[in-house]
Design goal:
This protein is α/β, with parallel strands linked by helices and 415 residues long. The protein is built from 15 helices and 19 strands. Strands 3-10-11-14-15-16-18 form a 7-stranded parallel sheet. A 4-stranded antiparallel sheet has the order 6-7-8-9. It is globular, with a radius of gyration of 20 Å. The chain starts with a helix and ends with a helix.
């Protein structure tokens, strides 16, 4: 099989010739700048570049040489968009770890060695304290109250790091001819590779509520101020559908997967009961999925962290074909439980290796055992793409990363 055939076979619940693999196609189950720096040094590949395409979580876009070494089958469309060297400049946010960042990203070191990053409004919207390896949100535009109208919604979203620090390729969305260039670049990439193509479109709903109002306020609002929650969600949907319409027209016939995002769970289960999800978010998630399915040939992925077992039937019914990153360390998220109950209805894109306590703390042999057990469960009958549970963080030993990918190949050779 080609890589694209392998990925599509898994999504269609047909067991492919080998385990499909992802690394770096999404900014929430990829690899941090620091971990990648250490990996390149370990592999003797220091000459390869370290491009931080997600400046918030400080995640890199692995070089094609590394992706081919590890048998990766899918690419982020954005990696082919900003290839001009003039787009990048070197910054050393973590001592000893220089990396390349988009030139529009201009963090400023403070006297306490923290970093503050200004957004398009000139305000500081992100902070990375000394010792941290990612940026925290600083501004919650609606923290005091909901606005009377949403004429300035786009502006207020730009004051939040998740809206102000765009992910490639959409960090250039306001440039003339962007949509035509996106289509041309995506066609070029598809002609150059047999790997599947993924494009993240966001369209978050619950999360935008927490970004704008702050988590504690928004969770209370769902019970105490439902009318204002619906008003906000309606305004977000109007913006999301207008954006999706442009995405679908530009690349809906070229990309294989469109990735949405909405983290709905913690380690201890969903943030909200099923009934609350069904009232506020289910119909809107369904509208987004229906729009994609009626306007494109792409499959729908939802990045959704945490213990979301109780929400899985709702997410499947809403139209999400793929769930990522499959947080197997959270409550009720055991691989066998998920596969037995939902394996015929959804593809698990993740759950291959726990980054919370295994990949960072276990020995290489323990990592291999863990990985092989998860592949054996998730991979049976298709419906599985190997990916780590969220990002490979700075504390992960490079030997364990290599052991993880070796385990995939060993499993496939011995099955």
């Amino acid at each position: 099989m080609t890589s694209r055939e392998r990925i599509l076979s898994a999504i269609n619940h047909r067991e492919p010739d080998r385990t499909p693999v992802d690394l770096g196609a999404t900014p929430s189950s990829g690899i941090s700048v620091v971990a990648y720096h250490n990996l390149l040094k370990y592999l003797g590949k220091e000459g390869l570049k370290n491009h931080a395409f997600d400046v918030i979580q400080q995640c890199t876009q692995p070089d094609m040489e590394i992706l081919d070494m590890f048998g990766v089958d899918v690419l982020d469309v954005g990696r082919y968009f900003n290839t001009d060297p003039d787009y990048w400049r070197e910054i050393e946010l973590v001592k000893g770890v220089p990396a390349l960042y988009p030139k529009w990203f201009n963090p400023e070191r403070q006297s306490d060695d923290s970093w503050l990053a200004p957004g398009v409004t000139g305000e500081y919207i992100g902070k990375m304290p000394l010792g941290a390896t990612f940026f925290d949100q600083m501004i919650f535009p609606f923290i005091e109250s909901y606005p009377a109208d949403y004429k300035m919604l786009g502006y207020e979203q730009s004051r939040v790091i998740w809206g102000g620090f765009g992910f490639t390729p959409f960090d250039r969305i306001n440039e003339p001819g962007f949509w035509e260039l996106l289509r041309a670049k995506t066609f070029e990439l598809r002609a150059k590779t047999d790997k599947a193509l993924l494009l993240g479109v966001g369209c978050n709903l619950f999360e935008w509520g927490t970004f704008l109002r702050r988590m504690d306020n928004f969770l209370m609002d769902l019970y105490l101020d439902p009318l204002n929650v619906h008003r906000l969600l309606d305004a977000l949907m109007e913006s999301h559908i207008a954006f999706l319409e442009k995405v679908c027209r530009a690349v809906g016939d070229v990309v294989d997967i469109l990735k949405f995002g909405d983290d709905l769970g913690s380690n201890l289960g969903p943030f909200i009961p099923v009934e609350t999800y069904h009232e506020f978010f289910y119909p809107r998630h369904k509208q987004l999925c229906d729009f994609v399915k009626s306007h494109t040939s792409a499959h729908t992925m939802l990045h959704c962290c945490g213990g979301i077992y109780e929400l899985m039937p709702e997410l499947i019914n809403a139209g999400f074909e793929i769930i990522n990153p499959v947080q197997i360390s959270a409550i009720n998220m055991e691989p066998a439980r998920l596969k037995n109950e939902f394996g015929n209805d959804v593809t698990f894109w993740g759950g291959g290796c726990d980054t919370k306590s295994i990949l960072n703390r276990a020995t290489p042999s323990q990592v291999k055992e863990h990985v092989k057990q998860n592949i054996a469960i998730f991979g049976k009958g298709g419906g599985f793409v190997f990916n780590t549970v969220h990002n490979i963080m700075p504390d992960v030993p490079p030997a364990n990363i290599v052991a993880m990918f070796e385990a995939i190949k060993e499993f496939d050779l011995n099955k």
